[in-house]
Amino acid sequence: MFVPKPGQTDYTHARWAPVITCVVTHSGKILLVKRSRRMRLYPGFWNAIGGFLDDAKSLKEKVEEELKEELCINKHDILSMRFGEIFDADDPKYRKTFVIHPVLVRVRNKKITLDWEAEEYAWVTPCEATKYKVVPSFRISLKILFPHGTV
After folding, report:
1. Domain count along the chain
2. Which range marks the domain in which residue 129 is found?
3. What is the pLDDT of residue 106?
4. pTM over 0.85
């Protein structure tokens, strides 16, 4: 059960929820993580690194925070960030519309350490990523971040 920290917004029962989808890239590949079976939303699905925009931090700060928390990637290992067009993704199963902020994050190396939110990971091409059981909105994020299909 989610318990918000001071200053955090709880989107558990909200109809709309802003989130980031951080597509991490290195040497022409992107990182996919398989969401833990303990996750409330989309357990067992593959996705990029993500999180709710539930406090007053900037998008850049949230990207840095999520990469540190979920992958142990420090901000000095982030080479660049490119923010894509924001879009809405309605999911009737969860009775929620996610306001998705896709971000392409280029990192210095492939070294990561997963936290409890993911069970496994794979470095794949954007085209290969579509063959995985991904969360519904992930394909839209890829189209926005890779309009020509390549990193």
Report:
1. 1
2. 16-145
3. 98
4. yes
